[in-house]
Amino acid sequence: MQDDIWAGMKEAKPLKFPHVFRLWLLLWALPGFCLAQVPKPTQAETDKKFERLGRWLKSPDESVRVDAIQELTTIHDPAAVPLILQCLQDTNTAIRGAAAWSLLLYRGPQVVSALRPVLNDEDDRVRASAVWSLSHVGGRAVLPDVVRLATNDASGVVRFRAVWGLAFCGDKSTLPIVVDALGDYNNAVRERSALLALDALADKSVLPLLLKQRHNILPATRRVVMYLLAKYGDGSIIPGLVEGLQDPDALVRAEAATSLGKLRARKNLDALQPLLKDPDDHVRGSTAYAIGLMGDPAGLALLRSLSQDNSAFVRAVAPESLQKLGDKTAKPPEGFKAAELFTFPIYSPEQKDLY
Length: 355
Description:
Elements: H1 2-9, H2 22-28, H3 43-57, H4 62-72, H5 81-87, H6 93-102, H7 109-118, H8 124-137, H9 143-152, H10 156-169, H11 175-181, H12 187-201, H13 206-213, H14 219-232, H15 238-244, H16 250-262, H17 269-272, H18 281-294, H19 300-304, H20 312-324
């Protein structure tokens, strides 16, 4: 399995998004947009601009109204808020969604009150934009609203934004909800927004919650849990990782082995030995990588047994781990770096904001 994945990585192509989402992507990049230094307009010029945009928003032509909201989203001026709020009632879903998203730049009870009804919009992208902005501007007061969408909304993109949004509400009482999101059937919720929320909220109290999830019915969830136990845990969670070595799913076994290596659990070196004969090459490769991370010279003999492994991937990982344990004769393939293949989560920092 891993040999195919390793080869496929070289041919991976960047994500492509349909034309209909151009406006969404433009707006989702808005917080990082920097305006060039320009002369400050006079009050008369500003008033004239808002008067023009107000006319455009009343146009029966949707393209004109789209142009208006696009321009409004580039203006960080409280005077724009009334026009943006007007857009929340537009019949065009892209306009409503753009308006909801742009409100994350503004705070105040008027904005919060306007966003709450939009959480019930019939369009899931609009609801996602609304809960994202609300979580940024509403603080702890909007926790019930955000939690409702994080736990009950039928749309993955809404749960994605709501779960991540809990991080911006800043209340650690929502940790159980975030950990429960690790069991979401939607990959983006489980392996992006839940992890990003944990980055902001997690402390040692998260460990008992994670241990309960290690028996989740979803193999992908169990794998995430194995990863997180090493990230947030200490020696007390090692029994849970050792148990994971027996999981029926290969990726879970591999992640459990890798996590034991990250924790340098040398006393559990013997528990890894059976996995060097696992039928799955990713498990064998992960185990070889973990033995190298442990740093115990007792692992040298185990790694040398992989020199004739039928997987090129495993034969590449083993020499690198041998070098870590002090074998100067071991030679991994030129340019090979096992750490690049054993990263989790499975998205790049540039992709984390894309659903």
